[in-house]
Amino acid sequence: MSGPLNALFPWAFLVPLAPTLSFVVIGLFGRRMQRLEWGGWVAAGGAFVAMVLGVLIAVGEMLSPGTYTDRSFQWFTLAGNGTGTFPNGFSLVMGTLVDPLSAVMLIVVTVVGFLVMLFSIGYMHRDSGLPRYYAQLSLFLASMLGLVLADNLLQFFLFWELVGVCSYFLIGFYYQRPAAASAAKEAFLVTRIGDVLFLAGVFIYFQQFATAGPGLGWAAAGFPFVDHGAPFLALIHASNPTLFTIAGLLVLGGAAGKSAQFPLDVWLPDAMEGPTTVSALIHAATMVAAGVYLLAVTSVFIGFSATDQLAIVAIGGFTTFWAASMAMVNRDIKRVIAYSTVSQLGYMVLAVGAGFTMVGLYHLFTHAFFKALLFLAAGAVIHVVETQDLFKMGGLRKTMRITSIGFLIGGLSLAGIPPLAGFFSKDDVLGSVYAAAQTHPLYWPFFLLALLTVFMTAYYIFRVWFLTFSGDRPRDPALPAAHEAPWTMTVPVTVLSALAIVAGALVFVPQFGGLFTAGVGFPATPGVPPAYTTTDLLLSAGSVGLGLAGILTAYVLWGNGRVFSLSANSPAQPIRRLLLERYYVKAGVDWFGLRVVYTFSRFLDFVDEYIIDGTVHGFERLFSELSIRMRRLQSGVVLDYAAYVVVGLAIFLVFLYVIVPAIPALGGG
Amino acid sequence: MTDLPLAGFLALSAVLLGIGIFGILTRRNFILLLIAIEVAINSAILNFVVFGAYWGGVPGYGLEGPSVAVVLIGLAATEVAVGLAIVLALNRLRGSINVAEATVLKL
Q1: pLDDT(A226) > 60
Q2: Which of B15, B77, B72 is nearest to B49 (CA)?
Q3: What torsion, rounded to 10 degrees, do the Cα atoms A40, A140, A496, A460 define?
Q4: How far apart are the C-alpha atoms of A669 and B18, rounded to whole Å?
Q5: CB pairs < 8 Å spanning A and B
Q6: How far is A646 from chain B (nearest CA, A)?
Q7: Do the chains contact at B106 and A642, CB–CB below 8 Å?
Q8: Which among A144, A132, A151 has a CA at the least distance from the CA of A39?
Q9: Mind telling me how many Å the CA of B21 is from chain A's nearest CA?
Q10: Which of A185, A299, A334, B60 has its CA at a distance of 20 to 30 angstroms from the CA of residue A380?
Q11: Does A259 have pLDDT greater than 90?
Q12: Count of beta carbons in the 10 Å neighbourhood of residue B70
């Protein structure tokens, strides 16, 4: 099947090119035109072009389900000589791949990207350094689009790194603030740990495929949804299963770094130091989605290793609970949402790990909209009241009606209340893990953690909503008078509200749903079960009930301006403290760094200073002292020199005629 | 000449060398120093002459010993000429020919 829109597929490279052009234009000319603030419009324009193209391509993919359009060119080829690591040689390609998976991601990234750009124009207009901001934001978007469309893992990795460096720039946008500069560094370094693992995994895949399959080439190796048929499967079966498991774990490490999964999750809440728009983009469309997307594109390999699958399920399931628990007590509006992202990413990872790649991607899709909505609404609030402290806000629903309704929709969606978007995808995630747990009993604890998290999610997000919007007036009277945000901010909020309502139900449109069903089920792949289609009603009712219970709890504790506080001697205090201190992970890392690493460094410093330098300086002193003493011999008196000559001659003669003949080793004896 | 023992000449040469070295080490007067050097050199010249005479009748040996002795006499004379020039210069420069005071070699 092919529709007229399929003609667009080979031109998919134009999608990342549009924001790249805005990046170049703003980067080159932005400073000169700073006062006009047109950089924002250029960036939004680039993103708009990308959105139109991206959505058209995605629609084309929907109309011709299950097609894979790979347009690539040979980057370079190395002929093999029959020996060594690559006896058949290998070739590297660059190209774009349009498939159901990238079509879904194209919609998410371009739509959220464009709305965030539009929102930025209102949100950022008081800031300085705007050309930098818009240029980097455009590059961020372009890198993510390049990643989404990449047709091989190496190209994927290049864009992956670009995404990483852009996030570093943007988190550190307010680089004058030490917290922002350090958060940027933290984000970069923590994700870097994952990147190194990922690269190692890429090497293993590369080696496995390049050695085994000269006919298939490397491009074929990277992506699961291109049906390479029997030879490809034979190739996988022929490769070393241990190496494959290891590569899967390494890739999981990369994904955990990028998607802020335990234990590499510390950077994401700290990344809130960047502008709220950047947070929205990172959390919804770019950065963190890349990790889940990576797991999705490599799921066909991962499906061959039960160990890998269990590791992914464990990390995802544990992270959902871990992050949600910390979100329950935080008093910073953005950080709560950040923890929520970590937790929701855990759901996606969980689903992918359980073998339901497209379910994970489905949750990514809906999550992108309601999370961007939550962030942009939070951004509008912060923009107006100029604080992020929940306990200073209150009563804002009266003055910021659109924002409060938007946040409410986002919250309901996040809490998984039907018929909002979050309900469908979260239900699918739970259902698929439930289904997988039937055959893999080890998944049960993680399923239960995920189920428990439904309650926690609803609680923490409604705690935020009640604290921010309900009540009569702000708790801190010093807050600036609230008003509704300008149209560039309310329009994206409104659009995202609409999407957060309908995005989940979109799968019932056959064409759109086809993206998710066509993508799943690599032929005859063990461990990758078909799409989760039946919905267990009891499970759905249970999760909705848990969500409602969470909302109710939040209402009882925080509704109508109430502020719930634990009594000082409550047995829950230590738990609250533990959560506020982020399970002492940061403190532990600091302790480790200060005590262990620093002590070791001090030891090394000691070795350097006293043993290595000491030896060098010791020799220096030895010779300097010696020469000071030897200098006395240089009296300048001829007679003394004559005496030295005589003494030297005498010593030489004694040596030659007395000592040498006495020692057998020297030829005497 | 052959009736005199070789060892006697060598002993004389050794004594001359000892006197020369003793003089070199103990004299502070530059001229006496030069004389001591001459004595030491002459002990070496004597050795050449003695060995030259000793091997003189043996087939295969020529006049190497006396020839080198002649060269060495020339060398000694040259050395004295240079030495005396230094004495004059030193005397003009410092008004003394005491070598122990002439420490200008030292930086």
Answers
A1: no
A2: B72
A3: -120
A4: 30
A5: 28
A6: 8
A7: no
A8: A132
A9: 8
A10: A185
A11: no
A12: 14
The letter for the amino acid at A658 is: V
Summarize the confidence of residues B96-102 as an average pLDDT.
82
* CA dihedral sign, ordered A312, A313, A317, A322: negative
**pLDDT of A335 above 70:** yes
Q: Which residue has the tokens 């490279």?
A: A13
Mutate to test the interface with A, among B24, B29, B87 (most CBs of A within 10 A): B24
**Count of beta carbons in the 10 Å neighbourhood of residue A578:** 14
Q: Identify which of A182, A244, A225 has the alpha carbon closest to the alpha carbon of residue A523.
A: A225
Instruction: Note the pLDDT of residue A105.
Output: 87
Give the integer Cα–Cα distance in Å for A441 and A454.
Answer: 21
How distant, in Å, are the alpha carbons of A297, A493, A508 from that of A505? 24, 19, 6
Tell whether the torsion through CA atoms of A353, A359, A362 and A367 is positive or negative.
negative
Q: Do A636 and B104 touch (CB under 8 A)?
A: yes
The beta-carbon neighbor of B106 closest among A636, A643, A646 is A636
Per residue in A476-493, pLDDT tens?
777 777 677 777 778 888
The whole-angstrom separation of Cα A216 and Cα A228 is 8
Residues B54-71: pLDDT tens digits?
887 778 777 888 899 999
- Token digits of residue A56: 């058209």
Residues 6+ positions from A347 with CB-CB distance below 8 Å: A316, A320, A360, A363, A426, A429, A450, A453
What's A162-201 look like in SS3? Answer: HHHHHHHHHHCCCCCCHHHHHHHHHHHHHHHHHHHHHHHH
Nearest to A469 by CA among A569, A400, A370: A400
Task: Give the model's confidence band at A617: pLDDT under 50 very low, under 70 low, under 90 confident, else very high.
Answer: very high
C-alpha to C-alpha distance for A508 and A496, rounded to whole angstroms: 19
> Percent of chain A scored above 70 by pLDDT?
88
Upper half-sphere CA count for residue B74 (Cβ side, 13 Å)? 5
Is B106 close to A638, i.e. CB distance below 8 A?
no
Q: Rounded to a whole number, what is the distance in angstroms from the first to the last CA of chain B?
A: 53
Mean pLDDT, range B11-21, rounded to an integer: 93
Of B25, B102, B104, Cβ closest to residue A643: B25
- Closest CB to B99: pick one of A634, A639, A646: A639
| pLDDT tens digits, one per residue of A515-527 | 776 544 333 333 3
The average confidence (pLDDT) of chain A is: 81
Cβ distance A510 to A600 under 8 Å? no
Question: Do residues A293 and A368 touch, judged by C-beta distance below 8 A?
Answer: no
Give Rg (Cα) of chain B.
Answer: 18
> In this model, does residue A421 exceed pLDDT 80?
yes
Q: Are A50 and A85 in contact (CB under 8 A)?
A: no
Range with the largest mean pLDDT of A71-80, A285-294, A322-331, B30-39: B30-39
The C-alpha atoms of residue A259 and residue A283 are separated, in whole angstroms, by 9
Q: What is the pLDDT of residue B73?
A: 94
Among A354-358, A561-565, A593-597, the minimum mean pLDDT is found in: A561-565
* Residues A151-197: tens digit of each pLDDT: 778 888 889 999 989 888 888 888 888 888 888 888 888 888 889 99
Answer yes or no: is pLDDT of A215 > 70.
no
> Cα–Cα–Cα angle for A366, A371, A373, nearest 5°?
105
Helix, strand, or coil (residue B3) = coil
Q: Please give the full DSSP string across A587-655, using - where no structure is assigned.
A: HHHHHIIIIIIHHHHHHHHHIIIIIIHHHHHHHHHHHHHHHHHHHTT----HHHHHHHHHHHHHHHHHI
